[in-house]
Amino acid sequence: MTGIKILLTLLTSLIVQSSGDGLPYSSPDIRERVVLDYGKRAIRIAPDETISKPGLMRDRQRCFIIMSKKDYYLYVYEVQGKDTVMLARYDCAFGLKKGNKERRGDMRTPNSTMSKPFTISQIQDASTWKHDFGDGRGNIKSYGNFFLRLVTPGHSGIGIHGSTNNEESVPGRASEGCIRLKDADIIDLRNNYAFMGMKVIIKSEMEDDLPFEIKAMRKQHIERLRHLNPDIVLNNEMIQSAAAEQGRVKKTAPAKPQPKKH
Predict the structure, then answer these.
(1) How many of the other CB atoms lie within 10 Å of CB of 163?
(2) Of residues 14, 12, 45, the one with CA closest to residue 215
(3) Could you tell me if 6 and 210 are in contact, meaning their C-beta atoms sit under 8 angstroms apart?
(4) pTM value?
(5) Which of 163, 199, 194, 165 is nearest to 181 (CA)?
(6) What is the sign of the dihedral through the CA atoms of 95, 97, 103 and 105?
(7) Is the dihedral of CA 31, 36, 42, 46 positive or negative?
(8) Average pLDDT, the chain
(9) Which residue in 110, 97, 86, 85 sits closest to 203, CA to CA?
(10) How far is residue 9 from each of residues 2, 78, 114, 150, 167, measured CA to CA in Å?
(11) Of the candidates 191, 127, 132, which has an alpha carbon nearest to the alpha carbon of residue 162?
(12) Beta strand 73-80 with 83-91: parallel, antiparallel or unpaired?
């Protein structure tokens, strides 16, 4: 059995590990906020600190990624014998609209499962890549130093990347479907953990912590700012109708002086 098949078998077995009760939800003041970002509705939420402990890693090839679309985190775990250890945690931003991706341009991030994970197919230098968001800023650098391209059956162009010129959007919802990290975090993820073929699980908005995640956080005494009650998070209709805070505003060019009339 190949190393990748062994890891996939281990990942599937983690689903049924017993963990007891779940972890407590965060306080009600930690909530999703609707913000007008260059005139477009986006979601912002309180940022948390980055955790990265590559010194705990034993075998890079046994590492995998779990993302929580509900709580706006990207986690790196490693299977170590019968245990699972959290190595890293980053704030992240997802597609502007909630739900599983159905078609190109629907502004959603696709979901995957432990039994059918996505994989990293390429790790690309994105330091010079640009994108026009249609917000008046033109074609600007947007991806940080790296783009971790994912194999997402049925969809293309999805990856994990930085947030150059858009770090305010992390954590939250603002992308066209990709996953944004802060620029420093995409460098840390690439340098310390990511590899070609790495398994990536993106949980749906209604999916909470998996049993092995609860066990790891308890055992490692890891606290987090965001663990949202799924019963009170915003849905797409609420995002469109909620009162919005003012975010970034497009800068207008100063008016040209009018010639004096004689």
Answers:
(1) 24
(2) 14
(3) no
(4) 0.88
(5) 163
(6) negative
(7) negative
(8) 90
(9) 110
(10) 11, 14, 10, 20, 36
(11) 127
(12) antiparallel
Residue 135: name the closest of 94, 103, 105, 176 by CA: 176
pLDDT digits (tens, 9 = 90+) for 69-128: 999 999 999 999 999 999 999 999 999 999 999 999 999 999 999 999 999 999 999 999
45: tokens are 């939420």
Pairing of strands 199-203, 63-68: parallel
What tokens does 154 get?
């049925």
**Residue in the block written with tokens 């917000």:** 135
Residue at token pair 């840390």: 188
Strand spans (E) along the chain: 33-37, 40-44, 51-52, 63-68, 73-80, 83-91, 93-95, 118-125, 130-132, 139-141, 146-151, 159-161, 172-175, 179-180, 199-203, 245-246
